[in-house]
Write a structure and sequence with these properties.
795 residues, alpha+beta, 11 helices, glycoprotein
């Protein structure tokens, strides 16, 4: 039974080969002689194997079942003959494509060994070519390569879809080998089924190379690799779009009712882009036979009507597409003179009628309507002029639409577009580009109402003596609830109201012939066909005062001139005063000096006032031409000097002769004093301390009464020369001479022998500072000294 089956299959294979040979190019060396002697002779004769390479035979799954096929690479100019032998020998026709020689399918027995012999002969070469192949058909079953492959990249993923043709029923899984472009290391990923495989963690910006092959199993013993497939980078960015729009008013070459739209775009990684997909659709949703365009350029020119459109662009390559970038073209709802006569009447909340000029030759129309914030609705219709309309020569065409899907609302403004199309057979939009022209635009209400709000931002500007300007912003369309017919302006003065009607196209008005210096109140309102709306809040203003007369102008000029003159005099005196200080500085006043400021004013007056001559006569040695400096009684110390009396001569011409005053035998009455402790740390310590005591009066005026505690030391002649007044600054000179006397005393010299005498001619501030330094450097030298505390009296 098995032998019969084998013979049957061989016969069937030869029969099929015969049929196939009828339509394929058969290369043969001559008659098909499969005898062993002939094959051995050919093998010995054709010992050259260079004309045949990569010879292989395998079993393929085809519709009729398992069939064998052999392939090899050879020369185009060579004629080849294929002998197959499986118990019996047979010749198989072969054909060539792209230097690949392939045999026709032939039947084999799976478990029997099969041998294939290829003989090649050429007129150019004297020797022939020989090569053979041997194998068991059950081990030669081949699945793949794939018959079709598609892939897509997205977010770092690469999805591969594979179709295996007749092998799809035998392949359970397949492998995908991939690598980055221009690298050598391959990676592998096995699929979970026979159709799809997902590659993860790919770099989006890099291209990849991949190959596929099935996973070998019993039914697919051989799984050859497919050719290398290049996968481009992933397109991750969306194109950037720009629009340039022109209409008939801007470019006369454009037909009225149409717009020229130039769409331009850019893509960052344009090298990875194969082409671009541009989609243009109406916002109303009306479809077109062609609304998508594939282009390799980066711009597209469109001729569109005045409807609203959406344009979307995406970049494409074999790995997928980029994100979509969209841009909207708004409908042109502004009136154009090029529009034809077109009116709309909403007859109910679900019906409306259209009227337009019958001179239009088109028969295909499209009407769109919408309210603000709504998606437009549309209706296509065919309208051919009737014979009656032609004979009566009617000037307009009318059509009424009714649909339960239409729902018009009161107090809402609706916009209508009427488009004409140049088609005759059907009114469907065949091409979105240059397919229709806008004929007319109309606006209407189902029911109008009065405005529910007043004009806003009312302002009063440019107020003069007899006029002012009012400005305002219009009422919004939602609050207007009808077609604006104008504005009312109410002007009130002293409860007398006057109204003005203003056109709807203006937003300002000038009030004239007003009274000067008068208060006014203004209100505004808008009105439609349904009536007047709300009034605005009152705005108050006062006109300017009357203009100045000539006399008032002169008076004002005089007042201003006087003010300017006074200011000039004031600033001139200040400048002169500063110049005087700068050019003629004032002589310093000794009374304001820091050296003398500690002398009490009362003591200064006491020093300068003449003492009572009778009291001076009681003290011997003091006459009217001298000044007695009386020292208070102190306890003597080894370092102290006796009190002295300085005689200051009033005669400036008399020589300064020192004169000693001898104390009398019977001393005069001298007031008893208590010792005064002087603070030498203060400024001008020596003189200030001596002047802090005032001359006290005698306690007893009785001549017979003597004052106790009086000694010979109370009055001692001075050994210093008399002081001569050299200038009007008498007090300063007295201060200087007294200072010199105190400095040159024996007690001071004993303590500070290195001190240098201060001359009267030196600056008194320097002298005061010099005395302060003495006190600071040797405060202990005066601790046990009876400092001369004198009282100076000018006679």
């Amino acid at each position: 039974m098995r032998k019969c089956s084998a013979a049957f299959y061989i016969a069937l294979g030869l029969l099929i080969s015969g049929f196939v040979s009828l339509w394929t190019t058969v290369a043969s060396t001559g008659t098909c002689d499969c005898s062993p002697e002939n094959l051995n002779l050919l093998k010995d004769k054709c010992n050259n194997t260079e004309g045949v390479s990569d010879l292989g035979c395998y079993i393929k799954y085809i519709t009729s079942g398992l069939n064998a096929i052999c392939e090899w690479k050879g020369n185009v100019s060579t004629s080849y003959t294929l002998y197959t032998k499986q118990r019996k020998c047979s010749c198989v026709a072969v054909h060539q494509k792209d230097k690949i020689w392939t045999s026709n399918y032939f039947l084999v027995v799976l478990n029997w060994n099969m041998t294939a012999h290829v003989i090649g002969t050429s007129k150019d070469q004297p020797s022939c070519t020989y090569k053979n192949f041997s194998g068991i058909p059950s081990m030669m079953t081949m699945c793949g390569p794939h018959s079709k492959i598609t892939y897509k990249r997205s977010s770092g993923y690469l999805t591969v879809w594979v179709e295996w043709g007749n092998d799809s029923n035998y392949i359970k899984n397949f492998l995908v080998k991939y690598r980055e472009f221009n690298t050598t290391r391959w990676k592998e990923q096995q699929s979970e089924n026979s159709k799809e495989c997902v590659l993860l963690n790919l770099t989006p910006s890099l291209p990849y190379e991949l190959q596929t092959q099935c996973v070998p199993i019993k039914d697919c013993a051989q799984c050859p690799l497919s050719k290398v497939i290049m996968v481009p980078p992933e397109l991750t960015d969306a194109p950037s779009i720009q629009l340039e729009i022109q209409d008939h008013m801007q470019n006369l070459s454009i037909s009225p009712g149409q717009r020229k739209v130039v769409v331009k775009w850019e893509y960052a990684n344009s090298e990875a882009v194969d082409n671009y997909n541009v989609t243009v659709r109406k916002v109303s949703g009306e479809s077109s036979n062609r609304d998508s365009f594939i282009t390799e350029n980066s711009s597209l020119t469109l001729i569109l009507s005045y409807s609203a459109y959406n344009i979307s662009i995406r970049a494409l390559n074999s790995a997928g597409s980029s994100p979509v970038s969209s841009i909207a073209i708004e409908q042109m709802d502004e009136w154009r003179d090029s529009f034809g006569p077109f009116t709309v009447n909403i007859t109910s909340n679900s019906s409306f009628s259209l009227s337009w000029s019958s001179s239009v030759s088109s028969v295909c129309y499209s009407v769109e309507w919408w309210a603000k914030g709504q998606i437009p609705a549309f209706r296509r219709f065919y309208r051919k002029q009737t014979h009656k309309e032609k004979t009566e020569k009617t000037k307009s065409s009318t059509i009424t639409f009714h649909s339960p899907l239409i729902n018009f609302q009161p107090y809402t403004r609706y916009y209508f577009f009427l488009h004409v199309r140049p088609y005759k057979d059907t009114c469907n939009m065949k091409n979105v580009n240059d397919s229709e022209t806008t004929y007319g635009l109309a606006q209407t209400y189902f029911t109008e109402g009065s405005p529910i709000s007043a004009p806003g931002n009312v302002s009063i500007l440019n107020i003069t003596q007899h006029s002012s300007v009012i400005t305002w912003s219009p009422v919004s369309e939602e609050d207007l609830r009808g077609f604006l017919l104008g504005y009312y302006i109410y002007l009130t003065e002293d409860n007398n109201e006057t109204s003005f009607e203003v056109d709807p196209s203006v937003n300002s008005f000038e009030l004239q012939n007003l009274e000067s210096n008068s208060a006014y109140r203004v209100q505004l309102s808008a009105f439609t066909a349904a009536g007047e709306g709300e009034r605005s809040d009152s705005k108050h203003f006062v006109t300017n005062l009357p203009d100045f007369t000539a006399l008032n102008s002169i008076i004002a000029a005089v007042v201003v001139g006087i003010i300017i003159l006074l200011l000039a005099v004031h600033f001139s005196f200040r400048l002169l005063h500063r110049a005087k200080k700068l050019l003629w500085p004032s002589i310093p006043n000794p009374e304001n000096s820091n050296a003398v400021q500690k002398i009490e004013i009362a003591y200064e007056l006491g020093i300068l006032e003449p003492l009572n001559r009778q009291r001076l006569e009681e003290s011997e040695g003091c006459d009217s031409s001298t000044v007695c400096v009386v020292g208070s009684k102190r306890e003597a110390s080894p370092l102290s000097s006796p009190p002295t009396t300085l005689l200051l001569s009033e005669d400036e011409d008399s020589p300064s002769i020192p004169e000693e005053i001898t104390p009398p035998d019977i001393p005069t009455q001298v007031p008893t004093r208590e010792p005064v402790i002087t603070n030498l740390n203060k400024t001008d310590s020596i003189l200030s301390a001596s002047l802090d005591e005032e001359v006290t009066t005698f306690e007893s005026k009785d001549p017979g009464e003597t004052v106790s505690n009086t000694t010979e030391l109370d009055f001692i002649r001075t050994s210093q020369p008399a002081v001569v007044f050299m200038s009007d600054y008498t007090t300063m000179e007295i201060f200087q001479q007294v200072t010199m006397t105190g400095i040159q005393g024996p007690s001071i010299q004993a303590v500070k022998p290195g001190l240098v005498a201060v001359h009267p001619g030196q600056d008194y501030v320097r002298q005061s500072y010099f005395l302060q330094e003495i006190v600071k450097e040797s405060p202990g030298a005066f601790n046990s000294i009876d400092v001369l505390n004198s009282e100076i009296t000018v006679l």
